């Protein structure tokens, strides 16, 4: 823990960290709350992040936040493994749903017809299709067919790498020269599941080779919560009896779509009591980015 000193041992971590944390950015007010996470306290926030939290608390706080439109994040690190869950509510708006800058191309020609066809100039470094079917575009600087300038965004159909259909242009003035066609990105609304539903139907983002491992780790985290409820502690480091009990609990959950990777679960259980700064830093950075969203 980067913000603590040896003299802070025995103190509440939040109170001991607050001063050093506040000095990182004088424009941000940092307060330490050492009471219970009451509904009245939680209701004052836009985003709530839980870490090192029992599953029962995660479910309770997650349901409360979801019902009130408060963004909810669970971030945790156990040994060499990290976990991150996000619930941004049922009506979360993504202002820019695609990565990178919107596409902008120079117009070479626009035909009169139904549909009209826009031909774009090839640009240096361009490869593949500039636009995709259904993209919304606007026009600017067009000479001749000036009706297109400032028009509301229109949907396109891609003919090839540099030609687009844009709808009826038969009544427009003949195209003379110039112009830019620019992609318009509309905000996208998406719905997030609360934690209680996500645990029943876990959606794990991973490639096909990593998927079985990710699902085994997902089961291992649930088994670790069950072990903590049962024993009141985390598994002792490299204690075979504790490791095998976590494995038994993982098997009993029965949520696996793939065979359980028992070696992964054993390795996870044997180091789960440890805290490693590099793992905490990575998970913490990812969680912070989700908070900014």
Automatic annotation (TrEMBL):
Q: Where is the Ubiquitin-activating enzyme E1 FCCH domain?
A: 114-185
Q: What GO MF terms are annotated? A: SUMO activating enzyme activity
Looking at the record, the residues that make up the Ubiquitin-activating enzyme E1 four-helix bundle domain are 187-253
A Pfam family annotated for this chain is: E1_4HB
Report the GO terms under cellular component: cytoplasm; SUMO activating enzyme complex
Q: Which domain of life is it from?
A: Eukaryota
User: Which BP terms from GO are recorded?
Assistant: protein sumoylation
Question: What pathway is it annotated to?
Answer: Protein modification; protein ubiquitination
Q: Which InterPro entries match?
A: E1_4HB (IPR032420), E1_FCCH (IPR032418), E1_FCCH_sf (IPR042302), ThiF/MoeB/HesA (IPR045886), Ub-E1_IAD_1 (IPR042449), Ubiquitin-activating_enz (IPR035985)
Swiss-Prot/TrEMBL keywords: Ligase
Similarity comment text for this entry: Belongs to the ubiquitin-activating E1 family.
Protein name per UniProt:
UBA1 enzyme
What species was this sequence derived from?
A: Serilophus lunatus (silver-breasted broadbill)
């Amino acid at each position: 823990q980067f913000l603590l000193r040896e003299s802070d041992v025995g103190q509440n971590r939040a109170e001991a960290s607050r001063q050093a944390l506040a000095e990182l950015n004088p424009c941000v007010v940092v307060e330490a709350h050492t009471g219970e996470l009451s509904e009245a306290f939680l209701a004052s926030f836009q985003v709530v992040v839980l870490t090192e939290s029992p599953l029962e608390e995660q479910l309770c706080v997650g349901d409360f936040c979801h019902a009130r439109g408060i963004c909810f994040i669970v971030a945790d690190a156990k040994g060499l493994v990290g976990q991150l869950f996000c619930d941004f509510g049922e009506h979360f708006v993504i202002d820019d749903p695609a990565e990178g800058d919107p596409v902008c191309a120079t117009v070479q020609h626009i035909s009169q017809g139904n549909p009209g066809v826009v031909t774009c100039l090839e640009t240096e470094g361009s490869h593949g299709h500039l636009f995709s079917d259904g993209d919304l575009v606007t026009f600017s600087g067009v000479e001749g067919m000036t009706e297109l300038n400032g028009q509301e965004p229109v949907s396109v159909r891609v003919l090839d790498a540099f030609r687009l259909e844009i709808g009826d242009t038969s009544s427009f003035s003949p195209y003379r020269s110039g112009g830019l066609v620019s992609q318009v990105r509309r905000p996208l609304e998406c719905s997030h599941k609360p934690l209680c539903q996500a645990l029943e139907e876990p959606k794990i983002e991973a490639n096909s080779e990593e998927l079985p491992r990710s699902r085994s780790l997902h089961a291992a985290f649930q088994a670790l919560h069950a072990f903590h409820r049962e024993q009141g502690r985390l598994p002792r480091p490299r204690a075979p009896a504790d490791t095998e009990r976590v494995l038994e609990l993982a098997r009993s959950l029965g949520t696996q779509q793939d065979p359980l990777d028992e070696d992964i679960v054993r390795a996870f259980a044997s180091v789960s009591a440890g805290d490693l700064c590099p793992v905490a830093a990575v998970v913490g950075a990812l969680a912070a980015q989700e908070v900014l969203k």
